[in-house]
Specification:
By secondary structure, this protein is mostly helical. It has one domain: Up-down Bundle (Amino acid/polyamine transporter I). Helix content is 65%, strand content 4%. It contains 29 helices and 7 strands. Helix 13 crosses helix 23. The chain is globular, with a radius of gyration of 27 Å.
């Protein structure tokens, strides 16, 4: 960490030079006069320049500038980016023009990577320096308000890992797998184009505006910038949507671990491992991060390997848990995790999870390069056109855009970008790397998941992801069902697939996690040698569960904070986070709410993920609409109407898709799509004493009626709340445009004393600047020590 790295500024003077657009803070640091200079909102970060005129640029090394201060690229840089652009264009052309030929997954991989690179290098830079006008001479709240707890200046690389671990949950893993029923092409386009122009923009802009407001939350910013009515609507929507998100995250874990003793054993051991790491680092060996990391990762690998021997250990029966048992276990775990000190369980689990997430992503990328698998899925299936898919009902528009609820655009990220992350950013320029770059990383996870689902046999894919009522749960009946939807698979193939990964069955293992694990196992086995399919499958299951449980942990705690703050407006004592009756009761309420929704999903005869995931997807994207509305509002209030299109493009598309999807889920006369139509059909059957498939009895019929009513009601409420927020925001837009801007709650600027690189990899000039600055700190410290003596 570059914690509290500043030197007191003894002499400051604002410098302005309109010709060169030069400005900065001049200071006497350790006997050397430093000047922030040559700042250009497009060229990049300011440079460091001493009184003798020796310039140390913190801009990208390939950038130069004309006498007028305008940016210019070197010939070498132009050639490199030209090659990247050509590679991307060729890959996209192959994907778009393929008509039944075999297509390698590498075309998707390189189309994604080239698009990400160009977007990060040019579009994200444009937004950061031209639209937002990040200013590294300005102190961030982490520097100004540093307290070692909530506000803490954090190394940009460490914070990138923390932020990525917090935002990356089930969405980028599950959504693309489910959307694969429509083919690989629609999902690929939305994941890549959506993240560039919507998801990553939202994350970076929300992070920036929250940072400029001392790390205020999304709901609080909406209340202050849009108004009380919109703020109350946003607060209710954010809390309710978070409950749905947590329920779906937990449901994915349940579906992954149900009837899987290997997975339960391995995941269960991560709890004592995390507790051990927490106590080890806090009490036994404080500060020994590398040491505890090596121990933790080693124990993690042993937990995965040991899961393969549960039968020999006589634990198979005890660890073969039903979905209902796992639901109870997760509820208890969620409550305990939300009230324990963060250092004891959550922090070490997040740390382990970050290593696991990034490591597996890199490993999967290498596996794809080595294996170069052929896509078995069609580019666009008939289900995208007729909307009769067995995984979820609905046509390509709007349902592919809300099924892939993360990886392209996710409202949940706005909660993190206005939560812990803005309180830890060292320099304003880091919002590009952390906000935009972190979302690009999640998008790559989503692309990897889509590829993994598309390289397995389509018949096997539909046998795994179709509800139990459709497949019958047996190999023979599942094979027959697959045949009825236009695909083919042999019953023996289904049995062999389960045996190859040491599972009793893979039929109707809905939720996306088993499918992704099977695809990853296939890629790893091909790339790194055969005979380890079972190990790789359970390794992937553990990866997914760890990936998701960190979000459940953090989300439950954040939900508790939100509930305590809300009730605290009426009962101030309840807002005291250290008061155990409040924290325990708030935790119980939050866990009880998402636990109920989880149980609804687990017991739903129609398949919980099939019912809840559309609600989750739409709700998450509606939350994104609130965040993007705030972004547009703040740009207009700051007098930047001409740049309102930057978040506005994503906002308009998001509102079109989410409102269309909400309307169809509420008012559609197709019972497979419309919640209330589904309720009417099953209620009419109950009145006629008739049991409709896939329900097995009248109790299940009543369950479907109840669940459909609850889901439809929630869907309606969420849409109405978002409309209230947007309408209130439009009123503010009109006022701000007429007035040429309006006052905001942005805190006044104060000069920064910290020197830090702007991006993940520091340039030579940046390294030199940091070294000389740190040396000046040491000299000042030594002088101060001498004076005291």
């Amino acid at each position: 960490m570059l914690a509290a790295a500043g030197v007191p500024v003894t002499r400051c003077a604002r410098r302005e030079d309109p010709r060169f657009r030069r400005h900065g803070w001049e200071a006497d640091r350790g006997g050397v006069r430093w000047l922030w200079a040559d700042t250009d909102p497009v060229q990049g970060l300011p440079g460091l320049q001493d009184a003798r005129g020796a310039r140390m640029s913190t801009t990208m090394s390939e950038r130069t500038s004309t006498p007028g201060g305008k940016p210019r690229m070197s010939p070498k840089s132009m050639a490199i980016w030209g090659v990247v652009a050509v590679v991307g264009a060729v890959c996209w052309s192959v994907l778009a023009l393929s008509r039944g030929e075999e297509v390698s997954a590498l075309w998707i991989l390189f189309a994604a990577l080239s698009s990400y690179a160009i977007a990060y290098r040019f579009y994200a830079r444009f937004i950061a320096y031209r639209v937002l006008q990040v200013d590294d001479t300005r102190a961030t709240p982490a520097e100004r308000l540093q307290d070692g707890k909530d506000f803490d200046v954090t190394d940009r690389r460490v914070l990138f890992g923390h932020h990525f671990a917090a935002i990356a949950g089930a969405g980028p893993l599950v959504g693309p797998v489910l959307a694969a029923q429509m083919g690989y092409l629609p999902g690929t386009i939305w994941i890549i184009v959506g993240v560039i122009f919507a998801g990553a923009v939202q994350d970076m802009v929300v992070l920036f505006f929250s940072m400029r407001r001392d790390g205020k939350s999304l709901g609080q910013m909406v209340r202050e910038e849009i108004g009380m009515v919109g703020g109350i609507a946003a607060l209710i929507a954010v809390f309710a949507i978070m409950i749905i998100i947590l329920a779906v995250l937990a449901l994915v874990v349940v579906n992954a671990l149900a009837e899987s003793p290997w997975g339960v054993f391995s995941i269960g051991l991560t709890i004592p491992i995390a507790l051990f790491m927490g106590f080890y680092l806090r009490h036994f060996r404080p500060g020994r991060v590398a040491e505890v990391t090596a121990i933790g990762v080693g124990l993690l690998l042993l937990a995965i390997i040991g899961g393969g021997y549960v039968e020999q250990m006589g634990l198979e029966s005890a660890l073969t848990l039903s979905p209902e048992q796992l639901t109870l276990g997760l509820v208890v775990y969620g409550f305990v995790a939300s009230i324990l000190p963060v250092w004891m369980l959550l922090t070490p689990r997040d740390y382990l999870s970050t290593f696991m997430k990034i490591g597996v992503i890199v490993l999967l990328a290498v596996g794809l390069l080595v294996a170069a698998p052929v896509l078995q899925n069609e580019a666009v299936t008939d289900f995208a056109i007729d909307g009769t898919g067995p995984v979820f009902a609905g046509k390509l528009f709007p349902f592919v855009f809300i099924t892939i609820a993360c990886g392209a655009l996710s409202g949940f990220h706005a909660l993190i970008a206005s939560g812990t992350t803005p309180k830890m950013v060292a320099k304003e320029s880091h919002v590009r790397m952390i906000g935009y770059g972190g979302m690009l990383m999640e998008s790559f996870v989503a692309i990897s998941a889509l590829i993994a689902a598309s390289v397995i046999d389509p018949g096997l894919y539909f046998a795994i992801n179709s509800p139990l009522g459709a497949t019958g749960g047996e190999a023979a009946t599942a094979a027959e069902f697959v045949k009825t939807i236009g695909f083919h698979i042999n019953p023996d193939t289904l049995t062999a697939a389960a045996q190859s990964v040491d599972e009793a069955t893979l039929i109707s293992r809905t939720g996306g996690a088993p499918t992704l694990a099977l695809g990853m196992s296939s890629i790893f086995t091909t790339a790194f040698g055969g005979g380890l399919a079972a190990f790789w499958y359970h390794f992937a299951i553990m990866f997914e569960a760890l990936f998701i449980l960190t979000a459940v942990d953090a989300g439950t705690r954040v939900g508790r904070f939100m509930l305590q703050d809300t009730i605290g407006n009426v009962w101030p004592k309840y807002a005291d986070l250290s008061w155990k009756p409040a924290s325990w009761s708030a935790s119980a309420i939050v866990v009880g709410l998402w636990g109920y929704m989880l149980y609804v999903g687990v017991t739903d005869p129609l398949g919980g993920i099939n019912q809840l995931f559309p609600l989750f997807g739409i709700a998450n994207q509606l939350l994104a609409a609130i965040a993007l509305t705030l972004c547009v509002t703040l740009l207009i209030k700051h007098g930047k109407v001409k740049w309102a299109w930057v978040p506005g493009v994503g906002l308009v598309w998001d509102l079109i898709t989410t409102m269309t999807a909400s309307y169809q889920k509420v008012f559609s006369d197709n019972p497979k799509i419309g919640y209330f139509e589904q309720r009417s059909v099953y209620q009419a059957a109950i009145n006629n004493d008739t049991v409709l498939a896939p329900a097995a009895d009248m109790d299940q019929m009543r369950t479907i009626v109840t669940n459909s009513t609850v889901n439809g009601t929630l869907q309606s409420i969420f849409a109405i709340l978002v409309i209230i927020v947007v309408v209130n925001a439009i009123v503010i837009w009109v006022k701000a445009i007429r007035a040429g801007g309006l006052p905001t709650t942005e805190v006044p600027a104060t000069p920064s004393d910290i020197v830090a690189p702007a991006d993940f990899f520091a340039t030579k000039e940046e390294k030199k600047a940091v070294r000389e600055w740190e040396a000046s700190r040491n000299r000042v410290g030594a002088m101060g020590s001498g004076d005291r003596q």
